[in-house]
Specification:
Elements (H helix, E strand, L loop, with lengths): L3 H11 L12 E5 L3 H14 L3 E6 L9 H11 L8 E6 L5 H16 L2 E6 L2 E3 L2 H12 L6 E5 L14 E4 L7 E4 H4 L9 H6 L2 H6 L2 H15 L5 H11 L3 E5 L4 E3 L37 H11 L26 E9 L3 E8 L5 E3 L5 H4 L11 H19 L5 E5 L5 H8 L3 E5 L15 H4 L2 E7 L8 H11 L3 E4 L25 E2 L2 H10 L3 E4 L4 E5 L8 H6 L12 H11 L9 H6 L10 E5 L1 H5 L3 H14 L7 E6 L10 E5 L7 H14 L2 E6 L10 E5 L3 H5 L6 H12 L2 E4 L2 H10 L8 E3 L13 H10 L6 E4 L9 H7 L9 E5 L18 E4 L3 H10 L2 E4 L8 H8 L4 E3 L5 H5 L4 E2 L5 H10 L3 H14 L5 H15 L9 E5 L7 H16 L7 E6 L5 H17 L9 E5 L4 H7 L5 E3 L6 H4 L9 E2 L8
Parallel strand pairs: 1-2, 1-4, 2-3, 6-9, 14-15, 14-16, 16-17, 21-22, 21-24, 22-23, 24-25, 25-26, 26-27, 28-29, 28-31, 29-30, 31-32, 32-33, 34-35, 34-37, 35-36, 37-38
Antiparallel strand pairs: 4-8, 5-10, 6-8, 7-9, 11-12, 12-13, 13-18, 17-20, 19-20
Length: 1081
């Protein structure tokens, strides 16, 4: 911030004679595809000589021929800077559009500088414009109400003020200046607009219905992304009660009418307006006050046609008191509840509690007591039953009575009774299905030990009153509700608001729960996220939930109430029937649930493309969906583009943006943490920050064929390769190329998983083929091609085809992207018909089956899926022996070199012979049997599970031990010391890894304990450096144990062992060894 003295001094410096004045403010220039106007504006900037020039440029539009050259010509002008100037550029390779390009570009500008003068490529300023902007940027630096300085005057000869400028509410952006402090308020999402609209904000602001309706339509279209960035800026100023400085004379002329992206009316009165100089020293208005008359003229002549006189007023909402601490709450956000109601959310200024406005929609929201989207109901109840059982058994009287308050369908009560806990049910809104006959009775209320209330508190309309009702039943409440994260997200930024369901109307913070506890003289224990205990007990350990999380509490050993309950129900209903074998029937129920380890799969490729890689992942997910492995994976669905496959679990996340990769990495890491992901694999080169990742290599085309590796896509690919800890390749050749390009990756560490072929690709009947040919007007036998351009090398076919003496007897069919025949290739097809088709899979099958041959002269393939599909359809294949193609085609194809025109012409003749065709067809059908999606899915799933075990650093000889960490430290320490010393001095110590099971101790505690053991060994002159690996292992999932056990040489027997952990080895053939027997092994 500047002091008054600083401002006065700077203004005195600025107000010297024009000849001595110097521009010190950075200039930002926004350009696109108009080199002629860009050159004129650049000449004006060159005359001003700014010390820093920041240039923003959009990329060419794909559907505008010649635009790429125009964009390049415009950018070339910037190279003409010939004065002392720092030039910074922000050029986009793709077309972002006016709104995104300008707004993101100005975000970049104000990341670099505090103030800037901003010109577009068609806005030609008078030379005095620069001094006018600079002086006012200095004068109003600290005045928050002033948000921009414009060089435009649209009063058409009217003289609204005796001063050099006046203040306006309107944004004019044809030459302007602003501060970082102002631009940071720009909100492209216009997040508050729906609420403002619903509360009549514009009517209060403009005091005229016609003007309010006009601007409401403008801002609604802008909110819907139909209008450019400057209307968002207009909205931003109005929302923040901001003002624009407008000059008494017009300082900028717009040259772009007729050719601009948005200024297309050549006869507009605003086009090519004359400019006049600003006189210095300027005459400053004595007070900051909007010029109402000038604004009325602007509104009337340029916008709604009306005059408005009321000054802006701030939108007002009735802010309720906090339902927890009765402090003032302030407006927080608005969300669309039940897809129909615009509902306001308010946040407490004291405790942070978030509540909705009065929830008038609840009857509709509870038309189904359990939300239909609550797919995690069974999984969550299983998890909470496990946690609750351990906690009650350890810290409360587990023989007492318990109540599940808000018990839903009664599933949790049933689970707890099955575990041996005498639980009862209560719920005002939901039908009891699974716990019938165990509803809360009057005689049970006085004897309750603990009440559970899972996923209830967020539903409470009056939390203090309703929590008091629960406490009156029992002062010990174990409950779950997600606490508001520290970054204070609003609806739309955090899943737990769930406005589409309309039931979550109270969101808590830790402070709000502490206030609740204090109000009722209870103590709060919490894990800081979702699990909490209000209790009158003072002596519970503070790390109680940590122990639960780390499995330090043993499972309760109680007799199930299952048979007792069954007989009770039978007797009560006086049913004369035999006792059923209910235990057997329950065990036969297979409830699919999420299992550890969780593997995160980023489905980003489905957002970007629909090519062969998408087919690979669709096929893999379809195979996994019906297997146990489905319980281990979570697919990240980018912008709802992933295929929805039954049995696969998804999480919706935002679309990927190559211009914001760092934020994407941070988001992925946050998701991995929230979902407890142990491993990450991307369908296309995305990575989290820290979570272990596996890289899937489809090809190394850019590296082998010499593409520009500085493109965003390939930079991210190389980052993903370097980030990865394990690698999968879809062919031997691609794996070898990965190793050649990145020698640090050992070839033997790359898992090879060949692609399969979809069952849709199979031979077709003649009538099917004829129908296909008739549909697309194919009247002759035809050769089939894939994509034409680039490394696919299809020019070789056309050159060879032109040499055929009978070429006019054939049509040519090309499928896939880029299947249009280039004009310069038509010389090779004279007298023949070319068909460029986009086909469905079923049609592609018929195209393969009916072709004389698939001609596939590719210079490189990561796998070569079209070759395999053709073989499966009984289509002969002519191809080149490059990269992975021989792995796929084997002996079932005719091979020619990728530059051998004569050889290919001969192959085209050879494949016309019936005996050759039949031989190739039969060989192809046999060859394709070697490939299947089932096999690929099994290989990759195993590779992913193996990657979750990389932290163990397994070697050739791997031993495992199961210490009982509940034993005294000295006893455990001596045993560990003996094991490590024995292995470290073993003759083959460099081949050994020792795995230490840490099931019932925190990993950090185990590491610290192990460090002390190692220190003791060093003090005894036992050096374990460069000897054995030692790895600490917490609990593994069943699928990890299945992968790990075959790689363990044996278990070393200890005097004190974790019997619970050892149960996981029951049934395995793992050898057990006494420590003193190792020396002889």
């Amino acid at each position: 911030m500047n002091s008054n003295t600083d401002i006065k001094n700077k203004l005195q410096e600025c107000q010297q004679d024009n000849d001595n004045w110097q521009l010190t403010t950075p200039v930002a220039l926004i350009i696109f595809n108009r080199p002629e106007t860009t050159a004129k504006v650049f000449a004006a900037i060159r005359q001003a000589k700014p010390p820093k020039l920041l240039v923003i440029a959009d990329g060419p539009r794909l559907n505008h021929p010649g635009e790429a050259e125009q964009c390049a010509a415009a950018r070339a002008i910037i190279n003409q800077v010939d004065w002392q100037c720092e030039v910074l550029t922000n050029y986009s390779d793709v077309n972002l559009g006016c709104r995104q390009r300008v707004s993101s570009g100005l975000d970049w500008v104000f990341d670099q500088v505090e103030t800037a003068i901003i010109l577009e490529d068609d806005c030609l300023p008078h030379h005095s414009f620069f001094r006018y902007c600079q002086e006012l940027l200095i004068k109003y630096d600290d005045e928050q109400r002033i948000m921009m300085i414009s060089g435009d005057n649209f009063q058409f000869g009217r003289n609204p003020t005796e001063y050099s400028y006046y203040f306006s509410r309107y944004v004019h952006c044809w030459g302007w200046a602003t501060w970082r402090r102002a631009w940071k308020k720009y909100d492209d999402s216009m997040e508050l607009w729906p609420e403002l609209k619903n509360h009549g904000w514009l009517h209060d602001l403009l005091s005229h219905q016609q003007a309010a309706d006009f601007w409401s339509g403008v801002f609604q279209a802008t909110y819907n992304k139909s209008n450019p960035w400057d209307l968002v800026w207009e909205y931003t100023l109005w929302l923040n009660h901001g003002l624009t400085i407008l000059p008494q004379v017009n300082l900028v002329s717009n040259l772009g009418f007729g050719s601009g992206t948005h200024t297309t009316m050549k006869d507009s009165p605003l086009a090519n307006m004359a400019v006049e100089p600003m006189n210095f020293p300027m005459q400053h208005p004595p007070i900051i006050e909007r010029h109402i008359a000038a604004d009325d003229f602007t509104e009337q002549t340029q916008y709604s046609g009306t005059r408005t006189t009321k000054t802006p007023t701030k939108p007002v909402w009735l802010s309720p008191k906090c339902k927890i601490c009765h402090s003032d709450s302030h407006y927080f956000a608005t969300a669309k509840v039940l897809q129909k109601y615009d509902v306001n959310y308010f946040q407490c200024s004291n405790c942070g509690f978030v509540q909705t406005e009065q929830p008038y929609w609840l009857q509709e929201a509870y038309s189904q007591a359990i939300a239909i989207s609550d797919v995690g109901l069974v999984y969550r109840n299983n998890i909470m039953a496990d946690i609750t059982g351990k906690l009650l058994f350890k810290y409360f009287n587990h023989e007492a009575k318990f109540l599940d308050y808000g018990g839903g369908y009664g599933l949790f009560v049933r689970l707890m009774r099955d575990k041996g806990f005498d639980f009862y049910w209560f719920d005002r809104f939901c039908q009891n299905i699974f716990a019938q006959e165990f509803e809360l009775q009057e005689n049970a209320q006085a004897n309750l030990e603990v009440i559970t209330a899972f996923e209830l508190f967020e539903h409470l309309t009056n939390p203090r009153q309703e929590v008091k009702e629960i406490i009156d039943l029992c002062p010990n409440i174990l409950f779950s509700t997600e606490l508001l994260p520290e970054d204070n997200p609003r609806p739309g930024q955090w899943w737990y608001y769930a406005p589409h369901e309309g039931q979550h109307i109270s969101i808590y913070t830790r402070k709000s729960l502490e206030i609740l506890a204090s109000n009722y003289h209870l103590k709060l224990y919490t894990n800081g996220k979702s699990l909490h205990l209000l209790t009158e007990r003072e002596n519970l350990p503070q790390d109680m939930f940590v122990k639960l999380t780390n499995n330090k509490l043993r499972p309760p050993e109680k007799q199930s109430l299952l048979m007792r309950d069954f007989n009770q129900v039978i007797n009560k209903k006086n049913l004369n029937t035999q006792v059923l074998n209910i235990t057997k029937s329950i065990k036969s129920i297979n409830i699919t649930q999420i299992k550890q380890p969780i593997i995160i799969i980023d489905g980003v490729f489905f957002q970007l493309y629909n090519t062969g890689i998408a087919r690979v992942w669709r096929s893999l997910l379809a195979q996994w969906a019906s297997s146990e492995f489905a319980g281990h994976i979570l697919v990240l669905d980018r912008a709802n583009t992933a295929p929805q496959i039954n049995g696969i679990r998804y999480r919706s996340i935002p679309a990927y943006d190559y211009n914001n990769t760092e934020a994407d990495k941070q988001m992925l890491q946050k998701i991995c943490a929230e979902e407890q992901g142990k491993l990450f694999i991307s369908t296309y080169y995305t990575t989290p920050m820290e979570t272990t990742s596996v890289f899937m290599a489809y090809d190394m085309i850019p590296e082998v064929l010499g593409s520009n590796l500085n493109e965003h896509m390939w930079l991210e690919k190389h980052h993903a390769i370097k980030h990865a800890s394990a690698y999968i390749s879809i062919s031997e050749n691609t794996g070898q190329d990965l190793n050649k390009c990145f020698p640090d990756i050992p070839l033997e560490s790359i898992t090879i998983a060949h692609c399969g072929v979809d069952p849709v690709f199979s031979p077709a009947a003649e009538n099917e083929i004829n129908s296909f040919k008739h549909k697309y007007g194919i009247n002759k036998p035809y050769f089939l091609l894939g994509a034409l351009q680039g490394y696919k090398n299809s020019i070789l076919f056309f050159q060879a085809f032109s040499q055929l003496t009978n070429k006019q007897s054939f049509d040519i069919v090309a499928t896939g992207a880029g299947s249009q025949l280039p004009q310069e290739w038509r010389q090779y097809t004279a007298g023949c018909t070319f068909h460029g088709l986009q086909l469905t899979d079923e049609e592609l099958r018929l195209a393969y089956a009916g072709a004389v041959a698939l001609v596939y002269p590719s210079k490189y393939e990561g796998f070569g899926l079209p070759v395999l599909e053709a073989l499966a359809c009984g289509c002969p294949v002519i191809t080149c022996p490059n990269a992975s193609i021989p792995e796929v085609a084997g002996e079932a194809a005719i091979y020619v070199n990728d530059d051998d025109v004569t050889g290919l012409a001969e192959a085209l003749c050879e494949v016309q012979k019936p005996t050759v065709r039949n031989t190739l067809i039969n060989a192809g059908l046999d060859q394709c049997k070697k490939f299947s999606w089932i096999k690929m899915a099994e290989i990759i799933s195993q590779a992913l599970v193996d990657a979750t075990l990389l932290f163990l650093n397994l070697r050739e000889i791997n031993y495992i031990i199961f210490p009982d960490w509940t034993q005294p430290e000295d006893k455990v320490g001596l045993e560990l010391q003996g094991v490590i010393q024995t292995l470290a001095t073993h003759p083959e110590h460099e081949k050994i890894t020792l795995i230490i099971n840490a099931r019932n101790i925190a990993a950090e505690d185990a590491e610290m304990f192990l460090a002390s053991v190692v220190m003791n060994l060093l003090m005894e002159s036992v050096d374990i450096n460069n000897t054995i690996n030692i790895s600490i292992m917490d609990e593994l999932g069943d699928i990890q144990w299945q992968s790990l056990l075959p790689r363990i040489y044996g278990r070393l027997i200890l005097d004190n062992e974790d019997e619970v952990a050892l149960d996981q080895l029951s049934g395995s053939k793992l050898e057990s060894y006494q420590l003193d027997s190792l020396a002889q092994m």
